[in-house]
Amino acid sequence: MARRGVVVTGIGIVCPLGASADDLWQGLAAGRSGIGPVTRFDPSRFKSRLAGEVDEAALSAAPGPLHFEIRRMSAFVRYAVFAADRAIEDSGLEPAADGGGVCLGVSMGGLPNIEAGVLTQERRGVHKTSPFLIPSLIPSMATSMIALRHGIGQEQVTITGACASGCQALGHALREIRSGARTWMIAGGSEAVITPITYSGLQAMGALSRSEDPQRAPRPFDRDRDGLIVGEAAAVFVLEDRAHAEGRGAVIYGELAGYAANSGREDITGISASQAAACMNGAIADAGLTAGDVDCVFAQASGMVQGDAAELEAVRLVTADARRRPVVTSIKGNTGYTFGANGPVNLAAALMALRHQVVPATLHLEKTDPSFVDVDIAREPRPTEVNRCVVNAFGFGGIKTSLIVSRAK
Amino acid sequence: MQDRQEERGQADRELFERVVRHVGEFVEADVSYLTPDSHLASSIEGMSSLKMIEMLLYMEDCFGLDFDEGVVDKFEKVQDMVDYIRELQEIRK
User: Fold this and answer.
1) Taking CB atoms and an 8 Å limit, are A131 and B54 in contact across chains?
2) Mean pLDDT, chain A, integer
3) Which domains does chain B have, with CATH numbers?
């Protein structure tokens, strides 16, 4: 019996390049950066003063159930609800119908609200703590608000797997539909942690780029890369059993054809090239493909010295015996590093690349690292035949995830 | 004596109107239909227990007052909140 196909029929996204998949694509195609000076707080005491911020003015506060409560939620909830609303509208799906569910990936949840809540408590007193504080910050609240707002009575799942959270959620949704347990899933990831404690913590880890020029940072794969730039985003998709989508005449963006995840064999923050390669190989095999079938890799690459190198080494290992090698790109120069939303934002970019048949450039890549010369990295937007992409997202704790997305048939 | 009563009545009406105005600001809706006897929990669309507590925090800031913990349980009608605010204002004087 043929395996169920899982297709994407709706995309909702908000990221530093805009509030739609078209905004994302236009920004990527034009090589536009969504990075700028931090505006959410005074960053002068930090070594990194840049961020990929969402333009909140672009988020129309759609009326509807729980409108009041949603406005009091941490930004990751508000962004996720906005993205889910758009994805559902885009797909034409009726989410109150049985047969589906919601699964989102969130890594750090309401960190800005935790920080603000502690400050309020200490400065104004315990009794000034908002009753919405706890609901606003728990990572599952993004998923819950989507389910409550859209009257979804089936299962809701939230996955917290560091910066691979969103990709894990998409993988879970893929498996749910493939198994026949669900006909459709609303799935993706959200993260919004532009708050001082994030900068303190990442600065202590030496993870942040020190560049003060938003037009030059971050610099994935570049010889002078020096760390990541904090970004924020939500990307949510409607995934459906292909027969269900075709039966209702839905527009299909692409097929989520494979997924794999693995872990371990390195320290807390390191990326093992062999494990990353095993993960990509697993996803390629899950899709019934070989490495030579892959046209493009949407990399995790954030601009970290060791992480970027390990990921390219993993691509080398995967494609060593392949009949042809894929082009590799990273969109972090455009969007910044969006933590749990990394994978879903990458997936949105890959779906647009499949639609437009162009691989977006790796922004700010000027000086090739000598150790990367044998890898084909997109330096300019590249018109080419794009049928299958690998989407990578890796997280602290050794979490690796890879998705395969194929062109709509 | 009569003048004082009239002054008091005028002050009560103004306080009631101010409370209703702040309730409207908080729930972002027209609540001009509220009367002193309106029930806080059931007369305002979408009111919930969390929303009620948040609204009292908002009222504290609006009036520059600190409400007692648990006072929310004593507020049944709009007038209860008006009376409580007036009491605190008089104590502060």
Assistant:
1) yes
2) 95
3) 2-92 (1.10.1200.10)
